[in-house]
Input
Amino acid sequence: MTAGTEAVAVRRAGRPRSEEADCAILDAALAALVEDGYAGMSIEGVAAKAGVGKATIYRRWKSKAEMLVEALHRRACFDVPLVDTGDLRADLLTILRAVHANMAGVAGPVMAAFAAEKFRYPELREEFDRVFVAERRAHIRRLFRDAVGRGDLPPDTDVELLADAGPALLWHALTVRNDPGAEDLPDRIVRQLLA
Output
Protein backbone atom coordinates (compact mmCIF):
# COMPACT_ATOMS: atom_id res chain seq x y z
CA MET A 1 0.00 0.00 0.00
CA THR A 2 1.46 3.37 -0.98
CA ALA A 3 1.29 6.54 1.09
CA GLY A 4 -1.42 7.85 -1.25
CA THR A 5 -3.68 4.82 -0.87
CA GLU A 6 -3.16 4.87 2.90
CA ALA A 7 -4.42 8.46 2.98
CA VAL A 8 -7.49 7.47 0.92
CA ALA A 9 -8.19 4.55 3.27
CA VAL A 10 -7.95 6.85 6.27
CA ARG A 11 -10.30 9.39 4.68
CA ARG A 12 -12.85 6.67 3.86
CA ALA A 13 -13.00 5.62 7.49
CA GLY A 14 -14.69 8.93 8.25
CA ARG A 15 -14.78 11.06 11.35
CA PRO A 16 -15.24 9.52 14.76
CA ARG A 17 -18.83 9.47 15.98
CA SER A 18 -19.90 12.62 17.72
CA GLU A 19 -21.19 12.05 21.25
CA GLU A 20 -23.07 15.33 20.96
CA ALA A 21 -24.88 14.10 17.83
CA ASP A 22 -25.62 10.75 19.50
CA CYS A 23 -27.20 12.51 22.50
CA ALA A 24 -29.22 14.84 20.28
CA ILE A 25 -30.52 11.91 18.22
CA LEU A 26 -31.42 9.79 21.24
CA ASP A 27 -33.19 12.69 22.97
CA ALA A 28 -35.05 13.44 19.74
CA ALA A 29 -36.08 9.77 19.45
CA LEU A 30 -37.59 9.80 22.96
CA ALA A 31 -39.36 13.10 22.26
CA ALA A 32 -40.74 11.71 18.99
CA LEU A 33 -42.01 8.59 20.76
CA VAL A 34 -43.96 10.71 23.24
CA GLU A 35 -45.24 13.21 20.66
CA ASP A 36 -45.92 10.97 17.66
CA GLY A 37 -46.02 7.40 18.94
CA TYR A 38 -43.84 4.67 17.47
CA ALA A 39 -45.83 4.46 14.22
CA GLY A 40 -45.71 8.22 13.74
CA MET A 41 -42.04 8.68 14.47
CA SER A 42 -39.68 8.50 11.53
CA ILE A 43 -35.95 8.57 10.99
CA GLU A 44 -36.46 11.77 8.98
CA GLY A 45 -38.37 13.41 11.82
CA VAL A 46 -35.82 12.36 14.43
CA ALA A 47 -33.00 13.64 12.22
CA ALA A 48 -34.75 16.99 11.82
CA LYS A 49 -35.35 17.31 15.59
CA ALA A 50 -31.72 16.39 16.28
CA GLY A 51 -30.32 18.70 13.61
CA VAL A 52 -28.50 15.91 11.78
CA GLY A 53 -28.86 14.24 8.40
CA LYS A 54 -30.71 10.93 7.93
CA ALA A 55 -27.45 9.29 6.92
CA THR A 56 -26.00 10.09 10.35
CA ILE A 57 -28.76 8.02 11.95
CA TYR A 58 -28.59 5.17 9.43
CA ARG A 59 -24.83 4.86 10.03
CA ARG A 60 -25.49 4.32 13.72
CA TRP A 61 -28.62 2.14 13.84
CA LYS A 62 -30.13 -0.44 11.50
CA SER A 63 -33.71 0.28 12.49
CA LYS A 64 -36.03 2.65 14.27
CA ALA A 65 -36.55 0.02 16.99
CA GLU A 66 -32.81 -0.32 17.56
CA MET A 67 -32.42 3.47 17.80
CA LEU A 68 -35.31 3.81 20.26
CA VAL A 69 -34.14 0.98 22.51
CA GLU A 70 -30.66 2.50 22.64
CA ALA A 71 -32.28 5.84 23.51
CA LEU A 72 -34.03 4.16 26.42
CA HIS A 73 -30.81 2.48 27.46
CA ARG A 74 -28.49 5.47 27.25
CA ARG A 75 -30.81 8.41 27.91
CA ALA A 76 -33.35 6.82 30.23
CA CYS A 77 -30.76 5.02 32.36
CA PHE A 78 -31.87 1.41 32.10
CA ASP A 79 -28.70 0.11 33.77
CA VAL A 80 -29.22 -2.85 36.07
CA PRO A 81 -26.30 -4.56 37.83
CA LEU A 82 -26.45 -8.33 37.46
CA VAL A 83 -24.96 -9.26 40.82
CA ASP A 84 -24.44 -12.78 42.12
CA THR A 85 -22.98 -12.87 45.62
CA GLY A 86 -24.65 -16.13 46.65
CA ASP A 87 -27.12 -14.21 48.84
CA LEU A 88 -30.42 -14.40 46.96
CA ARG A 89 -32.19 -11.77 49.09
CA ALA A 90 -29.36 -9.22 48.75
CA ASP A 91 -28.93 -9.89 45.02
CA LEU A 92 -32.65 -9.56 44.28
CA LEU A 93 -32.82 -6.33 46.29
CA THR A 94 -29.89 -4.86 44.37
CA ILE A 95 -31.42 -5.77 41.01
CA LEU A 96 -35.00 -4.71 41.80
CA ARG A 97 -33.90 -1.46 43.45
CA ALA A 98 -31.95 -0.58 40.30
CA VAL A 99 -34.92 -1.47 38.07
CA HIS A 100 -37.22 0.62 40.26
CA ALA A 101 -34.86 3.62 40.30
CA ASN A 102 -34.38 3.48 36.54
CA MET A 103 -38.06 3.11 35.72
CA ALA A 104 -39.24 5.66 38.29
CA GLY A 105 -36.71 8.10 36.83
CA VAL A 106 -38.36 7.94 33.41
CA ALA A 107 -41.91 7.41 34.64
CA GLY A 108 -44.46 9.59 33.01
CA PRO A 109 -44.63 10.36 29.32
CA VAL A 110 -41.70 8.26 28.08
CA MET A 111 -42.59 5.11 30.06
CA ALA A 112 -46.29 5.43 29.29
CA ALA A 113 -45.60 5.82 25.57
CA PHE A 114 -43.07 3.01 25.49
CA ALA A 115 -45.25 0.62 27.50
CA ALA A 116 -48.12 1.07 25.04
CA GLU A 117 -45.99 0.91 21.90
CA LYS A 118 -43.90 -2.14 22.75
CA PHE A 119 -47.03 -4.27 22.85
CA ARG A 120 -48.33 -2.94 19.54
CA TYR A 121 -45.11 -3.34 17.53
CA PRO A 122 -43.40 -6.74 17.63
CA GLU A 123 -40.10 -5.39 16.28
CA LEU A 124 -39.89 -2.90 19.14
CA ARG A 125 -40.78 -5.54 21.75
CA GLU A 126 -38.27 -8.00 20.27
CA GLU A 127 -35.46 -5.43 20.27
CA PHE A 128 -36.29 -4.38 23.85
CA ASP A 129 -36.40 -8.02 24.96
CA ARG A 130 -33.11 -8.75 23.18
CA VAL A 131 -31.29 -5.79 24.73
CA PHE A 132 -32.86 -5.57 28.18
CA VAL A 133 -35.03 -8.48 29.16
CA ALA A 134 -33.43 -11.75 28.02
CA GLU A 135 -30.13 -11.42 29.87
CA ARG A 136 -31.71 -10.07 33.04
CA ARG A 137 -34.43 -12.74 33.07
CA ALA A 138 -31.85 -15.50 32.59
CA HIS A 139 -29.70 -14.05 35.38
CA ILE A 140 -32.59 -13.86 37.87
CA ARG A 141 -33.66 -17.43 37.00
CA ARG A 142 -30.09 -18.57 37.62
CA LEU A 143 -30.11 -16.84 41.05
CA PHE A 144 -33.28 -18.73 42.01
CA ARG A 145 -32.01 -22.06 40.61
CA ASP A 146 -28.75 -21.67 42.52
CA ALA A 147 -30.68 -20.88 45.72
CA VAL A 148 -32.68 -24.09 45.24
CA GLY A 149 -29.43 -25.97 44.63
CA ARG A 150 -27.92 -24.60 47.87
CA GLY A 151 -31.03 -25.57 49.81
CA ASP A 152 -31.99 -21.93 50.49
CA LEU A 153 -35.33 -22.56 48.78
CA PRO A 154 -37.43 -25.74 48.69
CA PRO A 155 -36.80 -28.14 45.78
CA ASP A 156 -40.35 -27.61 44.43
CA THR A 157 -39.89 -23.82 44.08
CA ASP A 158 -41.44 -22.47 40.89
CA VAL A 159 -38.27 -20.77 39.67
CA GLU A 160 -39.85 -19.45 36.46
CA LEU A 161 -42.73 -17.80 38.30
CA LEU A 162 -40.60 -16.23 41.03
CA ALA A 163 -37.97 -14.98 38.57
CA ASP A 164 -40.61 -13.13 36.55
CA ALA A 165 -42.66 -11.89 39.51
CA GLY A 166 -40.41 -9.12 40.85
CA PRO A 167 -39.76 -7.30 37.57
CA ALA A 168 -43.40 -7.83 36.52
CA LEU A 169 -44.72 -6.24 39.71
CA LEU A 170 -42.43 -3.23 39.24
CA TRP A 171 -43.39 -2.92 35.57
CA HIS A 172 -47.07 -3.04 36.49
CA ALA A 173 -46.74 -0.40 39.21
CA LEU A 174 -44.75 1.97 37.01
CA THR A 175 -46.45 1.56 33.64
CA VAL A 176 -49.97 0.25 34.13
CA ARG A 177 -50.78 2.16 37.30
CA ASN A 178 -48.30 5.00 36.54
CA ASP A 179 -47.41 4.93 40.21
CA PRO A 180 -43.73 4.90 41.15
CA GLY A 181 -44.87 3.98 44.65
CA ALA A 182 -42.79 4.15 47.75
CA GLU A 183 -39.06 3.67 47.55
CA ASP A 184 -39.51 0.49 49.57
CA LEU A 185 -41.47 -1.25 46.78
CA PRO A 186 -38.52 -3.52 45.82
CA ASP A 187 -38.02 -4.41 49.50
CA ARG A 188 -41.71 -5.30 49.88
CA ILE A 189 -41.61 -7.45 46.75
CA VAL A 190 -38.53 -9.36 47.88
CA ARG A 191 -40.01 -9.86 51.36
CA GLN A 192 -43.10 -11.46 49.80
CA LEU A 193 -41.22 -13.52 47.22
CA LEU A 194 -38.90 -14.99 49.84
CA ALA A 195 -41.36 -15.16 52.74
Q: What stands out?
A: The mean pLDDT is 84. Residues 141 and 160 are 7 Å apart (CA to CA).
